[in-house]
């Protein structure tokens, strides 16, 4: 007598590898039983990463508070993490996103709506946030990209501007200096304001 066939169990992490789309994400994410995570996809391949530590969370909150009013005064809208579509089989979820204008009840943001993704970089996301995502955003024609590196007693912030398909440095500062620019809206602050209080 033949042995019974093994029971098949669908696992989206395995069975949908290389096939992820926004539609599949809406159907299967978040994945039941997994700890809270950031879900992103590049060319149909799902990438997950754990939520970052308190230093990144604090910096994201402080940066949102610093930029929200000046962004709004310029007619733009600052959001916490949003799903930004990067094509039929991909999306990114920046820590903060500056949109050209406010939206209402929108789950998936189109790249044409985005003025500047903002990433708070950590060791687990360094390559993706400093290399992969800026390249993706440049290919989509998003005009600005900002990344923030939090170190134990220092913060480095860089604002990049897209010029001819390549990123150029618009503004840069670290703790104790003034980080300022007139584009994409006027702002000025000391990056040290993003450090957790002692």
Automatic annotation (TrEMBL):
Segments forming domain Putative restriction endonuclease: 28-188
CDD domains listed in its UniProt record: DUF820-like
Keyword set includes Signal: no
Pfam families xref list: Uma2 (PF05685)
Coiled-coil ranges from the UniProt annotation: none
Molecular function per GO: endonuclease activity
Alphabetized UniProt keyword annotations: Endonuclease, Hydrolase, Nuclease
Transmembrane in keyword set: no
Top-level taxonomic group: Bacteria
Name of the protein in question: Uma2 family endonuclease
Origin species: Kribbella aluminosa
Lineage: Bacteria, Bacillati, Actinomycetota, Actinomycetes, Propionibacteriales
